[in-house]
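Progress note, project year one: complex with nicotinamide-adenine-dinucleotide.
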Amino acid sequence: MKQLYINGAWLDGASSSANINPSNTNDVIGHYALADAQQTELAIAAAAAAAPGWALSNIQQRADALDKIGSEILARREELGTLLSREEGKTRPEGIGEVVRAGNIFKFYAAECLRLRGDKLPSVRPNLDVEVTREPVGVVGIIAPWNFPIAIPSWKIAPALAYGNCVVMKPAELVPASTWALTEIISRAGLPPGVFNLVMGHGSVVGQALLNDRRVNAISFTGSVATGKKVAMAAMGRLAKVQIEMGGKNPLIVLDDADLATAVFCAVQGSYFSTGQRCTASSRLIVGKNIYPRFVAAVKQELAKLNVGDALTAGTDIGPVVDANQLEQDMNYIRIGRDEGATLAFGGERLDGPTPGFYLRPALLTDASNDMRISREEIFGPVASVIPADSYEHALALANDTEFGLSSGIVTTSLKHATHFKRHAQAGMVMVNVPTAGVDYHVPFGGTKASSYGAREQGSYAAEFFTTVKTAYCGV
Ligand code: NAD
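Model obtained:
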């Protein structure tokens, strides 16, 4: 049984759960401890006790610890990537890629420890100096989703520690193994007890305990809109700092002047890879009327070439859906789309593999409109719909007509339209001639509208959330 990590020690949970491989439900990856509310409070108490010391820790000590963690993650990329793919279902190359991203994030924040800075300014009043400095927030509660089991915990844990905060980490119920392996690495990095704690468990128990406890000064959450809203309200109710990253309904515009091969690559890669289970996946393909028939035919041709299968088998392009509930949700939306009048032009059927798993052939729904439920609600699977557009202006209006605003893409050879789109797309991330999913690790990540709330994650912009600003006046 894999235990909880609290105050520098490994502890049994109140109960445990089995971690099941979505490529083969006969494969039990392991049994993972589940914390109850009291154990979560123990972790919070440990973090609160460690916080004053860690806030004053030497930046070289922090940099060395983060660098050590990053180096080990990178050195073990194949093993950790395999574990990740086994529990989440993205293909092994995708799993390894995610692990590399996590390692690089720790390396980035190791260096970021050495770039902490403030401002010293003249005062507008006589005989005064003013200093503006950044201080840690204190104890940070981290609540993560299942779709990036090591990258998302890493892009929250690394800046939290770098800027001098203590952490209580709660991974998603479906994917404890990757965060547990990360914790095991962190446990050997030389951090004082209580600086980092892992409490696996249910959102309604562990998550709720983090939200309720006044000793948790800040909550960083990624997940669905429904949970995100609850988390935000609870945190704000007791004036805790809060950062919420949620879903998307990301558009990819394909203009009539697009290079067809680029358009097809962006659509297929962005919509279906990682089984479409990326918050930045394109799910609305908004396509110019003239290129529409050629685009649909070429996308179907590409989809027919994709191997859907076991995430760990070489040659698999698309792994399984993460679990039975998500598979049912995906298939429901395909049904809803057809009932609403869209055409199922490719795939959408459940597939049997050599092992029992949640396999779904990527689905392409054509003749869709932007007011259908499949165009408005996040599906979070290998399902995309194609919506025709009369002009660039029409396509832009359709792209922006959504409650979400995470990533927004365009494929065009027109500099004028690309430039206009960068300025007018209502999204936190804009992509020109590249897929809507797939981002760098050293720059901000996040959205607008219902996709995000609070300060941006990643890059040096993460300091905004993980620190608080102090202004000090000194008479001279
Ligand atoms: P989810 O909202 O179901 O769960 C997210 C986390 O919240 C889990 O750890 C869960 O245990 C916890 N939780 C559940 N109820 C809670 C409660 N009452 N109090 C506190 N915590 C609680 O999301 P999911 O299904 O794990 O993830 C998929 C969603 O995540 C999708 O909507 C996807 O778009 C989104 N996502 C967003 C981003 C981004 O950066 N914008 C990145 C990845 C995934």
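The pocket of nicotinamide-adenine-dinucleotide is lined by residues 143-148, 170, 172-173, 203-204, 207-208, 211, 222-224, 227, 230-231, 245-248, 279, 378, 380, 406, 451 (CB under 6 Å).
The mean pLDDT is 98.
No further modelling is planned for this target in the current period.
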